[in-house]
Amino acid sequence: MIDNLINEIEQAMLNVLDNEQLSQLRKVLDYTFRNISVTKKESVHTESNNQTLIDNFIAAKKVK
């Protein structure tokens, strides 16, 4: 997952940095993320939670 993140950062910087700078950026990112764990956040839970909130809101409005 870290490699994917680093690759996305490198892709975003391609138009700004030359090859030597990109190489240095890669080294810095590898070193910086060496002890970091990254997991992808699933949006399904957010959508589910949003729907629950909406349902609860509507139910509360009906009670009034």
Describe the structure.
- By secondary structure, the protein is mainly α.
- It has one domain.
- Helices cover 73% and strands 0% of the residues.
- It has 3 helices and no strands.
- The mean pLDDT is 88.
Structural class: mainly alpha
DSSP strand (E) fraction?
A: under 5%
Total of domains: 1
Ranges with pLDDT <50 over ≥5 residues? none
Major sheet characteristics: none
Mean pLDDT: 88
Rg of Cα set: 21 Å
Helix content: over 70%
* Backbone shape: elongated
What's the topology here?
Blueprint: H1 2-13, H2 19-32, H3 43-63
Protein traits:
64 residues; mainly alpha; 3 helices; 73% helix
What's a quick, concise take on this entry?
By secondary structure, the protein is mostly helical. The protein is built from 3 helices and no strands.
